[in-house]
Amino acid sequence: MALLEDKVVLVNGGSQGVGAGIVRAALREGATVAFTGRRAEVGEKLAAETGATFVRADLADPERVRGSVNEVIAAHGRVDSLVNAAGLTSRGSLLDTSPELFDAHIAINLRAPFFAMQAVVAHLVARGAPGTIVNIGSNCAHGGPPFLAPYSASKAGLAALTRNAAHAHRWDRIRINDLNIGWTETEGEDAIQREFHDAGDDWRERAAERLPMGKLGQVDEIADFVVFLLSDRSGVVTGSLIDWDQNVVGTTD
User: Keywords for this entry (predicted)?
Assistant: First the structure.
């Protein structure tokens, strides 16, 4: 039996990168999948390719966050599982981050997951149904590099939110976990490396040479792990902050 057979899964930020990988993996495992994204052309292309339902939404707007959940419920009758995969990773240090950049990170990386979880959990509680939520966090939640100050702050907030919500709703049988991913090979990361770090076409190969496993994190591997956490095969685990990376937090050479 497929891991997500007869489940309705909503993936926020599912039109590209890690989110799109999760869309594909959840479909492969038997789920009915809906996903959100800002850009209509990108979302509609993935929907046509996979058969998933695309809901256009700017997740910086809390009303659209809640509205997108309601649209999926209207289309498919329910939501059983939620993945918050949308993320803003634009650079900013403590000294050069503007209030606008800080607010943008909080809006996408923390406020959007908060109100998506609020809507989905309220729906599950009203149904008296169990459910699962996975938040895509970052190892930057532990501190992060100087050029990711607002990003790190937002992901640290998401980690605390995950544990708070998991504790609050454990008796509702709603399991909520956070996957703190490390440096991952995506289209968005390629754009970031070129825009902020003057990277050339060989940046992936150069990065791989500096990493213990000889490669960056891979979208399909992350997606498989997320599907496992969404499924009943992950058992009773809730409130876990899982570091999915090849660098070990708290160690030194």
Answer: Oxidoreductase
**Residue in the structure block whose two tokens are 């998933």:** 52
User: Is there a contact between 8 and 34 (Cβ–Cβ < 8 Å)?
Assistant: yes
150 in Cβ contact with 246 (< 8 Å): no
* Measured distance CA(213)–CA(194) in Å, rounded: 23
pTM given for the model: 0.94
DSSP state of 184: B
Q: What is the pLDDT of residue 71?
A: 98
Kindly tell me if the per-residue pLDDT of 189 is higher than 90: no
Q: Which is the catalytic residue, given 151, 174, 238, 245?
A: 151
User: Comparing C-alpha atoms, which of 65, 84, 85 is closest to residue 16?
Assistant: 85
> Is 245 in contact with 182 (CB distance < 8 Å)?
yes
Cα 175 from Cα 242, distance rounded (Å): 14
Sheet with 131-138, edge to edge strand ranges: 53-56, 32-37, 8-12, 81-84, 131-138, 174-181, 241-244
pLDDT tens for each residue of 72-99: 999 999 999 999 999 999 999 999 999 9
Distance CA 143, CA 40 (A): 34
Locate the DSSP E strands across the chain. Answer: 8-12, 32-37, 53-56, 81-84, 131-138, 174-181, 241-244
- Report which secondary-structure segment, H or E, holds 174: strand 174-181
151 is known as an active-site residue: yes
Q: Give pLDDT, residue 204.
A: 86
DSSP 246: S
